[in-house]
Design the sequence.
């Protein structure tokens, strides 16, 4: 139950009502005061003061002053009249309730309107600011445009001037030449009858002939230009220069190259060289050179060439144990296994070699062709002709110019067709 | 355009813009006049030559000539100032020299190459330099041929790949070092980045190098002096400036390179009135104006005592973007400093004026 504050005092004039409300120690803030046209409430829990006013007031202009343990209201009446009392006397509960609710609603509406009004003014301010900045920018732009225009016009005028000069210059030159022509004719005629300087003879001769021709044509040509033509060297003796173009490791221009893949391949090769996956305990008793996979590979190759296939396989095995990323080791071992008729092993090794020979670049073409051919051969010897044919065709795709592969592929095709027919 | 800062920097002002109804491959000023030529290819596969005159703020079409094959490049470099014959290379490999007053029949015609002539240059004409007038053409068939208009059908020099070697397209050619009647040098750039310098006096390969990316354009700063500088532009926005005064026996010529923009640099052209200023045009429709500064000492001795060149430095004076399509051709007017024309693949030709070049 709120505690009602009833010790208020008030006085009035024709236009205003002054209400003073002591606060009995409670502290008030503007939030505690609620006022609408005909209803006034001060609620500072647990204290409560409410008044349904005698007549409507102008709540927007009315003020409340908080201070000294007291709220001092200055309420301006809507209609100037003397009130009999501050509050409506004959207010029953319902009416009071209704009035209260009304008041609340009205207050809310007012609040809404106020916020909207505020929004609208804010919008207008923004628009105005925008327009102002736009104007400023326009002015700036215009200034720059004008500068440009002025430059342009200046230059255009110069251009026109220059053009006219050219035209005048041409006309002047042509007039001058005509004069010169006439002038030259006179002294030449004179000189014909006088002693002529040796050096002048060629000039005179040529200019005489020129004179004749120019007179005939009626066009003015410059003497000096004609003389110059006389002095031009003969056309050059025809010759050919042979040209070589810069070779590249990968012979494509930068814009065509598949640089990324090629880099990858080179990188892989470099990596493979560096790997030494060695099992130190076993290898301690090996000689120094036997720890080098390249040396072992060479040894294996030699043994293969001599026919010692088992020895070659051993060499390759050791090399693989030292470095299992070199595709050539697997490739060569596959060849050995083929010779030894270890066909499954041959297939395995060729497959491993092919795996290591990715990405497919022109550099490892030969190796890939060999791998495919060896695997194909192994398949055929196992009578898995279709797989074999697949490998041969892959080899052909990489290197379509190898006749042997083509022949072998043909043979296999016939074999397949033969078996299909017979079965 | 950075108009606000650097009021003293040269500005590139677009004076006239003309929309064309065909693809323009080359545009050239007619020497000693305010006229310019546009060469290109119409949509139906015919070659077009248009002659315009600059009148105030617009271009007036004076003449339009149609030819059976699209025309790729042209030059006035090898004709006299009186005749002003135009030499053109077309898509079929034909080299023709035309008298623009009577363009029905060419003055000189030869089927110079098997494939399109990518680039053409002329020397010995226009009162510049000495020696016989000659035209060099570079073609997609990998050969570079030098022609003399007085000798029919047979080139006076032929630079072709060795038998059996795969050929690379030649994209650009330029004459240089034509300071007297005997000396002459041809520089050719290929699509694999090769740059080769052929000496026509000794008929030999004088120098070659490779700049990794295809060479779009080469130009000497002046054709008619002892070779001074060579600029080579390439794909991927790089260009190299070689100092050609000192050739080291193994290292060749010293160079400085600059990466200007992400796109291809299609053309480089030196200002005729100042050989240290040049403009590059790019695939993004932009133009960059550069200035080369010489080093304190142009050559120095290396550890073995042989002379080697020292390259200077390049600084950007101005850059401007005019179009969204590559600007494929560029030409400075030899008569008015700062006036230039450029043609772009958006079928427009623009006349530009570069201001304040006197103050550099």
Sequence:
């Amino acid at each position: 139950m709120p505690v009602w504050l009833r010790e208020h005092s008030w006085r009035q004039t024709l236009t205003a009502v002054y209400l003073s409300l002591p606060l009995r120690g409670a502290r008030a803030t503007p939030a505690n005061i609620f006022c609408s046209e005909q209803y006034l409430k001060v609620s500072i829990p647990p204290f409560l003061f409410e008044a349904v006013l005698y007549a409507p007031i102008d709540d927007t202009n009315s003020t409340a002053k908080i201070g000294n343990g007291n709220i001092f209201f200055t309420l301006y009446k809507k209609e100037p009249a003397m009130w009999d009392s501050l509050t409506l006397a004959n207010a029953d509960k319902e009416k009071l309730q209704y009035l209260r609710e009304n008041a609340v609603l009205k207050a809310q509406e007012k609040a809404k309107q106020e916020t909207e009004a505020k929004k609208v003014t804010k919008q207008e301010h923004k628009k105005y600011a925008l327009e102002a900045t736009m104007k400023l920018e326009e002015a700036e732009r215009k200034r720059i445009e004008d500068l440009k225009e002025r430059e342009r016009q200046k230059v255009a005028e110069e251009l026109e001037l220059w053009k006219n000069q050219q035209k005048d210059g041409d006309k002047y030159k042509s007039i001058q030449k005509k004069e010169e022509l006439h002038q030259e004719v006179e002294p030449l005629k004179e000189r014909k009858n006088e002693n002529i300087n040796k050096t002048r003879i060629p000039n005179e001769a040529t200019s005489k002939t020129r004179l004749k021709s120019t007179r005939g044509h009626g066009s003015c040509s410059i003497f000096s230009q004609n003389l110059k033509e006389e002095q031009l060297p003969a056309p050059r003796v025809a010759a050919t220069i042979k040209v070589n173009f810069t070779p590249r490791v990968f012979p494509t221009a930068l814009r065509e190259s598949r640089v990324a893949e090629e880099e990858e391949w080179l990188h892989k090769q470099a990596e493979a060289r560096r790997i030494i996956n060695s099992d130190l305990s076993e290898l301690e008793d090996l000689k120094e050179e036997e720890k080098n996979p390249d040396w072992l590979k060479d040894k294996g190759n030699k043994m293969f060439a001599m026919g010692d296939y088992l020895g070659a396989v051993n060499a390759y095995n050791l090399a693989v144990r030292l470095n299992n990323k070199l595709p050539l080791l697997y490739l060569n071992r596959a060849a050995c296994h083929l010779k030894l008729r270890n066909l499954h092993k041959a297939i395995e090794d060729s497959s491993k070699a092919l795996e290591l020979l990715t990405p497919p670049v022109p550099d490892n073409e030969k190796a890939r062709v060999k791998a495919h051919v060896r695997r194909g051969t192994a398949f055929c010897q196992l009578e898995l002709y279709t797989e074999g044919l697949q490998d041969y065709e892959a080899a052909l795709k990489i290197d379509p110019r190898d006749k042997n592969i083509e022949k072998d592929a043909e043979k296999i095709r016939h074999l397949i067709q033969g078996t299909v027919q017979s079965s | 355009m950075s108009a606000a800062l650097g009021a003293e920097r040269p500005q590139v002002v677009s004076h006239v813009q003309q929309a064309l109804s065909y693809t323009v491959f080359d545009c050239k000023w007619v020497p000693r006049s305010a006229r310019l030529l546009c060469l290109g290819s119409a949509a139906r596969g015919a070659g077009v030559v248009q002659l315009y005159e600059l009148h105030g703020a617009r271009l007036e079409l004076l003449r339009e000539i149609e030819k059976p094959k699209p025309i790729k490049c042209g030059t006035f470099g090898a004709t006299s100032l009186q005749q002003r014959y135009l030499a053109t290379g077309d898509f079929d490999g034909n080299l023709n020299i035309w008298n623009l007053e009577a363009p029905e029949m060419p003055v000189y015609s030869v089927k110079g190459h098997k494939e399109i002539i990518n680039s053409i240059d002329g020397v010995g004409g226009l009162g510049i330099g000495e020696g016989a007038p000659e035209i060099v053409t570079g073609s997609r068939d990998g050969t570079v041929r030098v022609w003399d208009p007085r000798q029919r059908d047979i080139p006076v020099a032929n630079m072709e790949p060795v038998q059996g070697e795969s050929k690379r397209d030649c994209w650009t050619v330029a004459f240089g070092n034509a300071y007297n009647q005997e000396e002459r040098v041809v520089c050719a750039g290929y699509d694999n980045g090769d740059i080769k310098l052929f000496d026509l006096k000794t008929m030999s390969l004088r120098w070659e190098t490779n700049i990794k990316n295809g060479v779009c354009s080469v130009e000497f700063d002046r054709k008619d002096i002892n070779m001074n500088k060579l600029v080579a532009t390439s794909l991927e926005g790089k260009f190299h400036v070689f100092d050609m005064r000192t050739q080291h026996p193994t290292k060749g010529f010293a160079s400085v390179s600059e990466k200007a923009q992400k796109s291809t640099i299609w053309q480089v052209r030196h200002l005729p009135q100042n050989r240290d200023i040049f403009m590059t045009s790019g695939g993004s429709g932009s133009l960059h104006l550069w200035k080369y500064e010489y080093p304190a000492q142009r050559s120095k001795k290396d550890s073995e005592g042989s002379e080697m060149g020292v390259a200077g430095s390049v600084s950007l004076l101005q850059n401007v973007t005019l179009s969204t399509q590559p600007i494929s051709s560029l030409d400075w007017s030899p008569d008015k400093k700062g006036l230039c024309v450029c043609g772009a693949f958006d079928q427009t030709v623009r006349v530009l004026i570069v201001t304040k070049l006197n103050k550099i």
About this structure: The domain at 62-336 of chain B is CATH 2.130.10.10 (Methylamine Dehydrogenase; Chain H). Residues 1-5 of chain B have pLDDT under 50 and may be disordered. Chain B touches chain A through 62 residues (CB under 8 Å).
